[in-house]
Specification:
four-stranded antiparallel beta sheet, mainly beta, Neuraminidase
Amino acid sequence: MFSIPLKHIQRSERIGSDADDPAIWIPNTAGGRFFVLGTNKASAAEGGSIVLLDDTGSLRLTIDKIDRPNNIHVLHGMRTNRGRTDIAISTERLTSRLRIWELTHNGSVPAVKELIPNDNGTLFRGESGDAAAPMGVTGTVARDGQADIYVSRKSGPRQGYVHHLRLNLKTTRPTLTFVRAIVEFSGTKEMEALAISGDQKLLYAADERFGIHRIRLSDGMPLGIIPGKPFQGDQEGIASVTIGGKRVVICTDQIPSASRYFVFDERNPAAPMGVFTGQSDETDGIDASDQVRTAQFPNGILIAMHSAGACFDYYALPDRLPRG
């Protein structure tokens, strides 16, 4: 098993009291630049917010008064009546809602506009307490331009811990429709981090202190577990990315002072291929992209939450992975 040390190229500005989850946004009007959206996981009264950082880690925009935003995800190329657009979706834990913002970039300045769906974006209807408290979120854009959204929660049943919803922006008002409840929960701790595989066929769901579920998106059927045995801490942030032509899934091992990131072959994830080590403290959320290609990040980027600094570290991905 390989071990590759990564050194952060830059560290973002402090974004508040409790940085949690990043999401990479690559506008097609930004001339190769990228942005990072992140959650400051606090109540609205304590400064809960969504921030937008540029490719240098500088704070460009803040959306405040968000009531404990947990995770965030960017969807590129959703279809609307006006054409294609990019959006950010975030869970708002204390209001049991999904929040949605349209992202635009006019060539120099990023901007956001909130889109409010039917029923105010309420999630996990009929539930209460932690079972109605959304945590992780991910999604994929379908061929028809609508999005399939997947949301986890602070607590839930053994069967159907994650909800699958359909988001349509082509209607006069955005519509969010429940499709089904999926993913079996171990009962060990909680399930937060979610991610979609690079081929958009699988959902990964981190069942903390147990392992990572692999779920077939076409029918919600389980396809096995990435075992939690090699992890020292919680299984947290997940990202799928291609490195040196190989599609891998990166899974966070949440460790104080120096978290590490196990790398699994998406085709055969029974055991890790290796591990990336870094300087980020007690990492929760991560995101990665092989579409970012800049002078500092020629082979792609890994963004990792740095708990001690309430900020995000930007790591350059290697050009290839060792054989064997």
